[in-house]
Amino acid sequence: MSRTRVLALLASGLLLACALSGCLNPITNPPQALFSVSLSEGETPFTTSFNATLSFDPDGQIVAYQWDFGDGTTGSGPVTSHEYTKNGEFVVRLTVVDNSGATAAAEVDISAQNPVPSANFEYKPRSTLPDGTCFVCRGEKVTFEASASDDGYIVTYEWDFGDGERAEGEIVTHSFQSSGVHMVTLTVTDDDGGKKPVTHPVTVEGGDPCGGGTCVGDICLTTDTCSAPLPLPYEYLATGEVGP
Ligand SMILES: [Ca+2]
Ligand SMILES: [Ca+2]
User: Fold this and answer.
1) Which ligand number lies closest to the CA of residue 30?
2) Ligand 1 center to residue 35 CA distance, Å?
3) pLDDT given for residue 242 in this prediction
4) According to CATH, what is the number of the domain 118-237?
């Protein structure tokens, strides 16, 4: 075999190996990462779904979809969903990989918000006026009891009795020193700083006449005879921040 022929064979061999390994077409276009999200915010716990089927590779195929949900968990597949149980702001990152090993990524922000507590309160003793209105007596010791629920727990119960007096605690007592309608507001705060105010009007009777109570001087004493439900809460009268 001539030297020229050996060289030609060697060159052909190298060319074939190069073609098989892809070195003749070294430019690989990266994929494009695209996805949609069903819910980008909500109160925890909430589930949102992600759809990355619009992602594509211009010169090949996507072979892997990798999800980082931003809260320490991950997933895979073109369509997935995730439940957020912790409050916070999270960045969801999708990474797609094509058949050449090239990658692309896309991100979206998720806001998982603290559920605000629910709150209400009762008070007693209270009696009934002839028109059915419930009232408490001026100067009488009235017990206020809060009820509240939350996904966490209630840190503080704050009372504003509408007469300049305030108190703190789940169960408190108060004596109104003036008759009239007092707007009593309870504000509960949860372990994540979420606040919920609730306001009820409290009718205070005293002096002469003394409503349905028994007068001792100009102070009424009453028994807990009022069975009517509490007036609707006047939540719109109270201001309070919600969140975070
Ligand atoms: Ca490609
Ligand atoms: Ca909460």
Assistant:
1) 1
2) 18
3) 44
4) 2.60.40.10
